[in-house]
Write a structure and sequence with these properties.
homodimer, about 80 residues, alpha+beta, Mth169, Chain: A, 2 helices, 3 strands, about 35% helix
């Protein structure tokens, strides 16, 4: 079973990396850009056929390693 | 108009960063993990109300800066 996990900074946390990307895009002449924020993306394949159990395993991975819960949010989707 | 962009390494490109994450997850006792690959994620807000035009702007950003087309694929979704 395959899942995608997107990890984003919480709304009120500054995103200096995204800011640099934003400035660069403006500098190379892209117009109409309002804001850009950067996050992480994982594609995880789990050897488990039951959806709920598989989701629980992925959730455990997020909490234990992939996500810093103090400053980040995450979303798990089945793909 | 808001879009999400996920950037992933092409299928045949090695992902050393993902490999390290995978080994670490195994080491901290996660079972049933088959594979994990890491990518990038962007949330982009564009100041443009027409969907097609907005999508074109985001696509231009990807091609010009956000994605290395030699080794990476990308997907744009409206959110």
């Amino acid at each position: 079973m395959k899942f995608s996990v997107t990890v984003t900074l919480k709304k009120d946390v500054l995103d200096p990396q995204g800011k640099v990307v934003q400035n660069t895009l403006v500098n190379i002449g892209i117009k109409n850009l309002k804001s850009i924020r950067q996050g992480k993306y994982f594609e995880i394949e789990v050897d488990e056929s039951e959806l709920l159990t598989a989701e629980k395993i992925v959730d455990k991975m997020c909490k234990k390693l992939l996500v810093n819960l103090v400053i980040e949010d995450y979303k798990i989707n089945k793909i």
